[in-house]
Amino acid sequence: MTEPGNPNPSKPAATCGCSPETRAIILDTAERLFGENGVEGTSVRDITRAAGVNLGAINYHFGTKDALVMAVFVRRLEPLSQERMRLLDGLEQKACGQPLALEDVLRAFFDPIIQSEENGELARTSLARLISRCFQEPNPELKALLKRHFEHVCTRFDNAILRTVPELTPAEVFWRINFLIGALNHALDMWARFEWIPIMGLDHKPERPSREALIDQLIAFTAGGIRARSLWNAKQEPTS
Amino acid sequence: MTEPGNPNPSKPAATCGCSPETRAIILDTAERLFGENGVEGTSVRDITRAAGVNLGAINYHFGTKDALVMAVFVRRLEPLSQERMRLLDGLEQKACGQPLALEDVLRAFFDPIIQSEENGELARTSLARLISRCFQEPNPELKALLKRHFEHVCTRFDNAILRTVPELTPAEVFWRINFLIGALNHALDMWARFEWIPIMGLDHKPERPSREALIDQLIAFTAGGIRARSLWNAKQEPTS
DNA sequence: GTCTATAACTAGATAGAC
DNA sequence: GTCTATCTAGTTATAGAC
Predict the structure, then answer these.
(1) Cβ contacts of residue B212 below 8 Å, gap of 6+?
(2) pLDDT per residue as tens digits for the range A61-115
(3) What is the CA B43 to C1' D10 distance in angstroms?
(4) Distance (Å, rounded) from C-alpha B62 to C-alpha B3?
(5) Crossing angle for the helix pair A170-192 and A102-114, to the nearest 10 degrees
(6) How far B14 CA sits from the closest chain A CA (Å)?
(7) Which residue from B61, B28, B37, B57 is spatially nearest to B45, judged by alpha carbons?
């Protein structure tokens, strides 16, 4: 754990005036604890204690707990959304107007979540749990932030998927994307804390798959789900 | 301390002005608020204020907040699990050893969540949000309770689905059931608070479907997903 | 910049009047 | 059984010493 005492007084306090390390440590720790216990279930004392920094540090660096919460989410959602868009852009450029392959679109949506973060496995685990939680946070400011972030991305992917599965109605695609998001979030959350997973008394204890293998499974499942014939249409023709 | 829970099943409500009602009102209100703001984000003061009962009522009827939390979940999970098992029992009896139809198994899993509760629409909405939250609660006692409840049910459904889709490995079925659970929870949560849903800037504003229609969509999606060819196997034969 | 002390407030729980 | 007053402990946030 880093010692907070800074033996280097020659730091250009007047120009920079901040400690980049402490700030980052707080963000990392807060992200992990928010994922584990939720935002409401995590006090600033929990964070500063776990981070090994001073109690006042959060207020010094972020002002309020709410501002810290926003900073935690922004730090992750910003690059996540951008990477998703970037991958989709790449697919569309390569396709030159041709319809994309559904599996490729899904991979562009899933991959950025498991791609390498600067902090390795721990950060990716935190991210997974954080995102799976963020949809349920009651904080209205945070809700607005999330909506702002997902709006662009979801619209882009919604349109892309609509073109790959033209037989579905827009409303059907809308809900299936939500099914997909739920499957992704829950799977990553389960994956992140594998110890609680053995929910079943199973004879077969499943091994923990690699993240890549899990994503492959997710792509197979969600592609199959999105391509599935709607029961709504099936009901029109009672011949089955 | 002592168990302050009111164990007076034989006592009629009208005679003494005692509170079979208060207890139920507290449970209803707590369930709603837990769903909206999470367990940690809901204080006993929030509950008593919203329920219009006295601050001491929760401690009188349940002893502690934690005991109230458990009571809230037990009240819903018990009948939910039993109904799921009952429906699956019925399917298996009717099939007489023949493999079941995947869609029927899924419907037996989904339907009990939307089936009528005594309190109508509001209760069902609460239940949906409550269940979608319960997987993420950090409370260890609650986790144990949830595991106890889902263990039986998930094992039963796991085995049933394994028989309907014999080409999948047990590990694949295991994860696909988790995808399914995630899709269900997130969809119900989204459905319950439709106002936040318009996440997309869509040209097409989707109408809110009925619960039954949503479940039909879920069945189509998850059945398609479960039947999907695994990419793991597909990789073995690069002929496709 | 870091840390301590503490203010201002809210949490869950309880005791005792009615 | 209900309600009020109150206790203790924990919360965010701040002011000021080092």
Answers:
(1) B114
(2) 999 999 999 999 999 888 999 999 999 999 999 999 888 999 999 999 999 887 7
(3) 13
(4) 8
(5) 30
(6) 39
(7) B57
